Amino acid sequence: MDWRHFLTRFRPAAAPGPAAPGGVPVDRAAEASAELAAVFALLAGTEAEAARIRDAGAAQARRILADADRDAAVLEDDTNARAGEVRAAAAQQPVRTAQGEPDGAAAAAELAALRQRMAERLPRLVDRAFGDVCTLLDVAAPAGAPDHSATPR
After folding, report:
1. Which domain of life is it from (predicted)?
2. Whole-angstrom Cα distance, residue 58 to residue 15?
3. Half-sphere exposure of 94 toward its Cβ, with a 13 Å CA cutoff?
4. Is the alpha carbon torsion for 127, 129, 135, 138 positive or negative?
């Protein structure tokens, strides 16, 4: 760019006062596009590379989705096949229990043992949970409440 043209940018334009010498209005859009044409020409390679990267990414995404759809279909088929086996085994379970234990005495004994263990553990777990809530809320536990802070978890 010529210095004379550069300095004409700072010339006062149409200020009130005496008539200015005649001239052609400046085409700012043409000047800006002329100045930026070189920059845009340098960016053409970058735009092409960005388009290539986007296309490669889209192709890879399509491949990944196709693979995932294929894997999901295989997994669904395997699950459906396995579900049939599990249903058949579950259907046979009551028959085996009934054949081995006509009155279900073993199941009743196991249920009683589970209830006994629950009755033994539940108060301690409730106290520990209450203590944890008091600690989280930064509130002192009421007097007489057991302290389970040192109890291993």
Report:
1. Bacteria
2. 57
3. 4
4. negative
Whole-angstrom CA distances from 127 to 33, 38, 121, 149 are 77, 77, 10, 10
- CA gap 130, 8 in Å, rounded: 82
| Cα gap 12→80, rounded to integer Å | 83
Overall average pLDDT of the 92-118 stretch: 72
- Domain-by-domain residue ranges, the chain? 29-100, 105-153
Report if pTM > 0.85. no
Given a contact cutoff of 8 angstroms between Cβ atoms, the answer to whether 141 and 134 are in contact is yes
**CA dihedral (146, 149, 151, 153) positive or negative:** positive
| Nearest one of 128, 153, 124, 152 to 141, comparing CA atoms | 128
Reported as a single tens digit per residue, the pLDDT across 2-19 is: 666 666 666 655 556 666
In contact, 128 and 150? CB cutoff 8 Å = no
Residue 100 contacts by C-beta under 8 Å, 6 or more apart in sequence? 106
As a residue count, the chain comes to 153
